[in-house]
Amino acid sequence: MSIGNLGRDLRKLKIWLTYGSELLWVRVRMLRLDAIAQLQSIVVLMVLVVLAGVMFFLGFISLLFGLNTLLTPQTKVWVFFGIAILFLLLILLMTVLIIKLLRKQSQFMTETLTAINEDIGYLKRSNNAKANGEHKI
Questions:
Q1: Entry pTM
Q2: 77-90, pLDDT tens digit by residue?
Q3: Local structure of residue 82 (DSSP, 8 states)
Q4: Domain map of the chain by residue range?
Q5: Is 17 helix (H, G, I), strand (E, B) or coil?
Q6: What separation in angstroms does the CA of 92 have from each of 3, 19, 52, 122?
Q7: Out of 21, 40, 99, 101, which residue is the most buried by the measure of CB atoms under 10 Å away?
Q8: If you write DSSP's letter for every residue of 30-76 in order, what string do you get?
């Protein structure tokens, strides 16, 4: 190993570390922003779920009291069971929507982490290509 090769290798290492660290820093900041956005989204989602639950119960209780005074005993059975089935279907629909929203939110961080892996792979490939004597940009 000659001193010229050692100097060239040190320059390559310096360039690789400089660009690699800058790229890694940018990706980490992007990951931080994604994490903050996801946390904010989850907090807003939970607040909305709680508010929707409170409004649902208040409205439902009011509806039941109103229907109890208006309907005949025969009709009450059909109406109350129909309402129960309707709300079960709505709960299932909202559960599916919440799951889809959570899966969509988790994709943001996954995409950023994948991009970091691609950047590291690119840096490794470019470093290996330069070490083999190739000069491709």
A1: 0.43
A2: 998 899 889 989 99
A3: H
A4: 9-131
A5: helix
A6: 71, 50, 15, 45
A7: 101
A8: HHHHHHHHHHHHHHHHHHHHHHHHHHHHHHHHHHHHHHHHHS-HHHH
